[in-house]
Amino acid sequence: MFNRATLIVLVIALAGGLGLLAAQRLTSEPASALPETQAVTLFPQPRALPAFALQQSDGTQLVPGELHGHWTVVFIGFTFCPDVCPMTLAELSRAQKQWEDIPDSVRPRVLFVSVDPERDTPDRVGEYAAAFHRDTLAATADVPALEEFARSLSLVFMKAPPPPGAPDDGYTIDHSAAMAVLDPQGRMAGVIQPPLDPAAIAADLRMLTAAHRND
Fold first, then answer.
1. Beta bridge partners of 109
2. Which among 77, 98, 108, 99 is positioned nearest to 183, based on CA atoms?
3. What is the pTM of this model?
């Protein structure tokens, strides 16, 4: 996995990249080119993702085509996470409840990807995610596939060793708190940064879904 120095460099690079994108949005894009959003920072141009295959709790693979037709919020984490992951999924569930009236065929999705396959089986990840909201998609994969998937979304994670005297499985996972936003073509279209505002997230995803349906 990434070492801690690599994680720090990548986080700084991500922050710089987001700043550059914001500057491009202000200086080179017409004001009307992008929808006005509150919580989602949209990129001037969505970017295609490389192929990926994640394992879902029902035994099927989650591949890019599965996400087509929906706006999708992708959050990486792990089920043994003591604070950030449960708080984030709880906040996202509040947003999900606000768009439950949108038809299922185009309803926005939340995808939780565990980056701790050593402890998180697909079944465990599925049960964990569903406890926050029944519609939350959940998946994991082996470490190389997870690293490639996270990197394609400009997200990072690394395994941190357990404290002295703790059992070997008492480690934690450092990971990005930001979330990637995929458009209905499965391209990375933007990001959501904490702190989270469920009402604003719900309003943005509802508006983006409506705009896509009217294209």
1. 72
2. 108
3. 0.85
